[in-house]
Amino acid sequence: MRGRTGPLLLLNASGCLDALTAPEVAATLDGFVTKTVTPLPRDGNAPVRIAETDVGMLNSIGLANPGIDRFVTTHLPQLAKLELPIWVSVGGFAADEYAELCSRLDDHAEVAAIELNVSCPNVASPAESVAQIVASACLATRKPVWAKLSPAVPDVADVARAAQEAGADGLSLVNTMRGLKLDDRTLRSALEPGAGGLSGPALRPIALAAVHACFLATGLPIVGMGGVQCGRDALDLIAAGARHVALGTVLFADPQAPMRIRAQLAGELAARGYADVDDAYAVTHRESLSTTTTK
């Protein structure tokens, strides 16, 4: 592996926090994950791009971003002033585009890791397989490479194994699931592009299942994300096999969420007699193995 796993990191999910407009929120995290950067600038989808639902939020941003040239010359130097580890999310439509992006980031010391967005629900599927994308990215950079996977596949563990065999250093689980909301008055889609990515509490059991399955399948370090609202939600992901936890939709409503969830997590650990996060890490699997052994 190019990078070390290290202690628990509390991160933001890509696209759920603008660190340059809310640096005080970013400062309460252990690292910042950028919005996905693509080779060329993208305007993204037409508005309306965001809609609330009873169980979370739908978004159809469409990877709006300034492109890699402007990102490395303008945005990255500003992000470096935060003095946080910077994880850069990258996206493309073919393996060589991911490789190009990783190569452009390789010599930037402020980049701590690269997250490959191979799972965005608001753009066409990548033309190449996850394995091809990961392999090409790993050849193009010495940075740790994390593959962000979608749960909207028949078997996410199979995809995780493919990413591992191609050289991924870790997994980010999960991206949003596709959903639709109709406008109350017109009964047409509330989002201009139609469907969007569902995030928030409804995603939590799906994320938990994906983390559980992919930990068993690979043993890779995992950033768990999807509907985390409180310390117990973070603990569940950690127990299922997430080494790190990312906050997404909750940041839109509660900028104090990182500090609150960190404190709640400490309370949840103490209430169960765990000295620290390492004691709870993947405990679901340790107990399962123990039960299997004694039968």
Care to give the gist of this entry?
The chain is of the alpha/beta class and 295 residues long.
Topology:
Layout: E1 10-12, H1 23-26, E2 32-33, E3 50-53, E4 56-59, H2 68-80, E5 86-90, H3 95-105, E6 111-117, H4 130-140, E7 145-149, H5 156-165, E8 170-173, E9 177-179, E10 196-199, H6 204-218, E11 222-224, H7 231-240, E12 244-247, H8 250-253, H9 257-271, H10 277-280, H11 283-294
Parallel strand pairs: 1-12, 2-5, 5-6, 6-7, 7-8, 8-11, 11-12
Antiparallel strand pairs: 3-4, 4-10, 9-10
Write down the Rg: 18 Å
Sheet-strand content, in percent, reads 15-25%
Broad structural category: alpha/beta
Number of helices: 11
The CATH homologous superfamily is named Aldolase class I
- Distance, first to last CA: 36 Å
**What is the number of strand segments?**
12
Count of all domains: 1
CATH 2nd-level architecture: Alpha-Beta Barrel
Kindly provide the name of the CATH class.
Alpha Beta
| Strand arrangement, major sheet | 1-12-11-8-7-6-5-2
Mean pLDDT: 92
Estimate the global geometry from the Cα principal axes.
globular
Describe this structure in words.
37% of the residues lie in helices and 16% in strands. By secondary structure, the protein is α/β, with parallel strands linked by helices. It has one domain: TIM Barrel, CATH 3.20.20. α5 (156-165) links the parallel β7 (145-149) and β8. α4 (130-140) packs parallel to α5 and α6 runs parallel beside α7 (231-240). The chain starts with 9 loop residues before the first strand and ends with a helix. The model has no long low-confidence stretch (mean pLDDT 92).
